[in-house]
Each structure stands twice: as C-alpha cells, then as structure tokens.
C-alpha cells in the first residue's frame, strides 16, 4: 500500500470523527420540543425553590460555532413560545447546564461534553397539557 492511500484513509477518519460535532452544520442537532411538567413534578427536580413554579423546560446544545448555538437557542425560545401560546405568554426562570439531547434525522443525539443547556420557563395564563406523567 502506498502513502497516498494511508493519507486518504487518515483524512477520511479524521473528518468522520469531526462530523458528529455540533460545529458541523450538516450534522448539527435540532432542539426537541418543550417538556411540560405535570402538577408537582417541578418540585421533584432537586433544584432551588424558584424552579418549583416552572411550567416546563426545553434543552439544547450550546457547543459549536456561535451562530449555530444562537440558532439552537432561538429555536428553543420559539419552542417555549409555541408551548405557551405566544412570545409574550411566558417568562424565563433560569438557564442551567444540563444533560441535553437533540434530534438529528429523527434520532436522539447527545450534546458534546458539558454543552447541554436547559431553559426553565413559566407560562403566563393557561398552562399547557403536561408532557410526562401525572401525579
């Protein structure tokens, strides 16, 4: 085998390793839908008291190019607005580091390293139907 073959294989393997990262727009994951808590579920999160008033959360990956991170955050905020019935129908409680996954071609993908973020929010007015279990 010649050097050109090994060089080509090395480059292909290197690119394949980089392809899964969120810096590559082709392999970039999208934000999942907002998760709406069942009554009392927010109290079971083990977070400070201010989170007990949360209607739900939405998670996204905050790694990769700045433009892509901002796009995912904007997609997350749009998801909150959709869940609450409009952009003026919610308030953000806080944003924390969290385990997060996104969707890529219908498959859940995990964020790289500590890049997962969760935005905790409270809907103003009518609370949407819970996503998870009922207590």
Mean pLDDT, rounded to whole units? 77
Biggest sheet record? 4 strands, antiparallel
**What count of helical segments does DSSP give?**
2
Percent helix: 25-40%
SSE class: alpha+beta
Would you mind describing this structure in some detail?
- With 135 residues, this protein is an alpha+beta fold.
- 27% of the residues lie in helices and 24% in strands.
- The protein has two helices and six strands, in the order H-E-E-H-E-E-E-E.
- The strands form two sheets. Strands 1-2-6-3 form a four-stranded antiparallel sheet, covered by helices on one side. Strands 4-5 form a two-stranded antiparallel ribbon.
- A hairpin with a 2-residue loop joins strand 4 and strand 5.
- The longest helix is centred in the middle third of the chain and has 19 residues, at 66-84.
- The chain is elongated.
- The protein starts with a helix and ends in a 12-residue tail after the last strand.
Reconstruct the topology from this structure:
Elements: H1 3-19, E1 35-36, E2 56-61, H2 66-84, E3 90-97, E4 101-104, E5 107-110, E6 116-123
Antiparallel strand pairs: 1-2, 2-6, 3-6, 4-5
């Amino acid at each position: 085998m010649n050097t050109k073959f090994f060089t080509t294989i090395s480059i292909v393997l290197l690119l394949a390793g980089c392809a899964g990262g969120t810096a590559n727009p082709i392999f970039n994951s999208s934000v999942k839908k907002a998760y709406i808590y069942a009554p009392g579920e927010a109290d079971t999160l083990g977070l400070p008291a201010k989170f007990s008033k949360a209607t739900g959360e939405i998670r996204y990956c905050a790694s990769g190019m700045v433009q892509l991170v901002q796009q995912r955050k904007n997609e997350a905020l749009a998801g909150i607005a959709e869940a609450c019935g409009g952009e003026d129908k919610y308030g953000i409680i806080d944003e924390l580091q969290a385990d997060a996954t996104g969707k890529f071609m219908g498959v859940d993908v995990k964020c790289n390293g500590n890049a997962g973020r969760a935005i905790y929010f409270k809907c103003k007015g009518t609370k949407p139907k819970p996503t998870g279990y009922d207590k």
